[in-house]
Structure formats: structure tokens, C-alpha cells
């Protein structure tokens, strides 16, 4: 009896090994098909073909496995095969860490983003006037901060709200940045703005609302200056990474990502800061990853712990909105810090030991 069991077990081991060999032989065929589909740009998942294969297998099934069990087993094999093809697809992305293992480090007038040091990006939500911008720039300079943000083209929820100063705002950014030796970041909302951006600012920001504005992404991919891409309001990380790929594939490798919170049911914050996005994006891509604590929280009182969390999770920098007089701000008045509040936040971040300058 025992010898028989042993014999059967030996036989099972042989069958297992044969199955293993066949499964991997099948996987190689699947990979080859995946490559062809990738080149042709056709979807990897073909439900009609899958159904046909399952029906055929059930028809050929001699038992003792029931048809339903056979279908279940093969469906799992199909799922694993699709995953294999998709992993391969991800490996092929230009922004993928698998494609380029080393970090992308962006050098903007000598300020590095994505290297061993972190960066602080601060400035008003919108550029409102020369004086407003100059006041913030002076405070940043004083604090040793090198990168200033400020929106000139503002994508607002209501068409009746302040839409930004447009080109005039970009010109102010340039003038003030030149005076204080700062690097500037500002959002553009139309492909026609690329040339203006190249002329007046150092980094193009693509805002959350435009993360999947593919024509804008393509145009930014042809820009000669770096791009900071914000995560869409309800974008998955998969969508975020593919939006970045749109820019990279057009030739612009000076690309950075910024988590700015996603919309959830939570009302105590404006958006929900997805901290897990930081290590995941660092793991899956080689791009610098930043965190915008102002738009993600929509608050002023929890910025220090959120900034610390971002840095502890591996963020390459933090963005925060600062305004000389937030109460009178023409956009995002509720979340902008005044200058003393900003200095306090900055002190806290530096004292945390999480920020390497
Ligand atoms: C901004 O940074 O000015 C802005 C509008 O943010 P978001 O696109 O993340 O909403
Ligand atoms: Mn804002």
C-alpha cells in the first residue's frame, strides 16, 4: 500500500514538473504575442479570443475534472499571462525604474531636484501683483529657498473667478526671479504657452486638471525646459505614470511628478494626501517625486506633519503656498500661509532632520 502511494507521489511530481515546463513554455509564447501587440498598439486583453479558448478546452475536456474547474484553472493561467504582458509593458516605459535604474536628477540653474538633497518650493497660489510677488521672493531669499512658484494662468472652477494675470504674471516672475536669483515654476494651460514659458520661467507646471490633457502633455514633451506634472484630481498612479510617459516619449526627460492629493469622501481636508504615492512612484519610476502639502490638505494647520510624512516617505521635495496677506488672496485664500507662518513651517522642516539641504 505504502509503496503504491510513494509511486503515485513520484508520478505526481513528474507531472508537476511537466506542467511547470509547459506553463513556462506557454508564458514565453504569451510574451512573444505581447511584444507583437505592443508594436501594433492593440490591447493585450482579448475577451473574445479568451472565451473561444475556454469553450474549446471545455469541449475537449475528457475529465475527471469538471468543465467549470477546467475553465477556472485556465482563467487563472490567462490572468497570470496578461499580468506578464503588462509587467513587460511597464518595463518598456521610458519613465520606468526598470528602464532606467538610476534617479533622474534635474539641474535648474545649479539647483538639483531628485539628487541626495531635498527642495522646498514655495510661493503664492497666483501671481497677483509685482509687489505681492516681490514680498514673497524677498522672504524666500532670506530663508535660503531657491525655488518660487506662482500661477499666472489659473484653471479655476468658476469662469467668474480670477483667472490669473497671464503673460503679465510670467513677466513679473522673471523680473522678480532675476532680482533675487530664484528659480521659478508656473502653470501653463495651453500648448501655445510653451514658448512663453521658455522665455519667462524655469519650470513648466502642468496642473491636476490638465494631467490628461494629452495635447498639452505632448507639447510639454517638446519644451526645452523641465516639467512638473501634478497628479490628476482623481487619477490612479497608473494614469499618472502614463501621463508622464506622454511627456517623456516626446523627448523631454527633465520631468518631475508631484502628488497633490486626490478627491475622496473625506471633508476635513480639501483632498486626501496619498502618502503611499511617494514610495510607489519612487519605486516604479526614476523621476523626482514631490508633495504639494497645500493643495492636498487645503489647510494651514497640518502642513508640518504632512511635509514630514512626505519627506520620511522619500519625497524629493515639498511645495507650499505662501502669500503676504492670505486673507485677501485672489485664489486659495484659505490654505495659503502668511510669511511668519511659512517661516515657522520651514524651521520645523529643517529641525526635523528629514530635510537635507
Ligand atoms: C496650483 O498648484 O496652482 C494648482 C492649481 O494646483 P492643482 O493643479 O494641484 O490643483
Ligand atoms: Mn492654489
TrEMBL record:
Alphabetically list the UniProt keywords. Transferase
Does this UniProt record's set of keywords contain Transferase?
Answer: yes
Looking up SUPFAM superfamilies in the UniProt record yields: Aldolase (SSF51569)
**Any idea what this protein is called?**
Protein AroA(G)
**Domain Chorismate mutase: from-to ranges:** 1-89
**Lineage, opening ranks:** Bacteria, Bacillati, Bacillota, Bacilli, Bacillales
Give the species this sequence originates from.
Answer: Paenibacillus aceti
Amino acid at each position: 500500500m505504502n509503496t503504491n502511494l510513494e509511486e503515485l507521489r513520484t508520478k505526481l511530481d513528474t507531472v508537476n514538473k511537466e506542467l511547470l515546463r509547459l506553463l513556462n513554455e506557454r508564458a514565453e509564447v504569451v510574451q512573444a504575442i505581447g511584444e507583437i501587440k505592443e508594436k501594433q498598439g492593440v490591447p493585450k486583453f482579448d475577451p473574445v479570443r479568451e472565451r473561444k479558448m475556454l469553450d474549446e478546452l471545455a469541449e475537449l475536456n475528457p475529465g475527471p475534472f469538471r468543465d467549470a474547474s477546467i475553465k477556472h484553472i485556465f482563467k487563472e493561467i490567462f490572468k497570470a499571462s496578461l499580468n506578464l504582458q503588462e509587467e513587460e509593458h511597464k518595463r518598456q516605459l521610458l519613465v520606468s525604474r526598470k528602464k532606467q535604474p538610476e534617479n533622474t536628477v534635474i539641474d535648474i540653474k545649479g539647483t538639483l531636484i531628485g539628487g541626495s538633497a531635498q527642495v522646498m518650493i514655495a510661493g503664492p497660489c497666483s501671481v497677483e501683483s509685482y509687489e505681492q510677488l516681490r514680498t514673497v521672493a524677498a522672504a524666500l531669499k532670506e530663508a535660503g529657498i531657491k525655488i518660487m512658484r506662482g500661477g499666472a494662468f489659473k484653471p479655476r472652477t468658476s469662469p467668474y473667478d480670477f483667472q490669473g494675470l497671464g503673460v503679465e504674471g510670467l513677466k513679473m516672475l522673471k523680473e522678480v526671479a532675476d532680482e533675487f536669483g530664484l528659480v521659478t515654476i508656473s502653470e501653463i494651460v495651453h500648448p501655445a504657452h510653451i514658448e512663453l514659458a521658455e522665455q519667462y520661467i524655469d519650470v513648466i507646471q502642468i496642473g491636476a486638471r490638465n494631467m490628461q490633457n494629452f495635447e498639452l502633455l505632448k507639447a510639454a514633451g517638446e519644451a526645452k525646459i523641465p516639467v512638473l506634472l501634478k497628479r490628476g484630481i482623481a487619477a490612479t498612479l497608473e494614469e499618472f505614470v502614463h501621463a508622464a510617459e506622454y511627456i517623456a516619449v516626446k523627448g523631454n526627460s527633465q520631468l518631475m511628478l508631484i502628488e497633490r492629493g486626490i478627491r475622496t469622501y473625506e471633508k476635513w481636508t480639501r483632498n486626501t494626501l496619498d502618502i503611499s504615492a511617494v514610495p510607489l512612484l519612487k519605486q516604479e519610476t526614476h523621476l523626482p517625486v514631490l508633495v504639494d502639502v497645500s493643495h492636498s490638505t487645503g489647510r494651514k494647520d497640518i502642513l508640518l506633519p504632512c511635509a514630514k510624512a512626505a519627506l520620511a516617505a522619500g519625497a524629493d521635495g515639498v511645495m507650499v503656498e505662501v502669500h503676504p496677506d492670505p486673507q485677501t488672496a485672489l485664489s486659495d485664500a484659505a490654505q495659503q500661509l502668511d510669511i511668519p507662518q511659512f517661516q515657522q513651517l520651514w524651521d520645523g522642516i529643517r529641525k526635523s532632520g528629514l530635510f537635507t539641504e
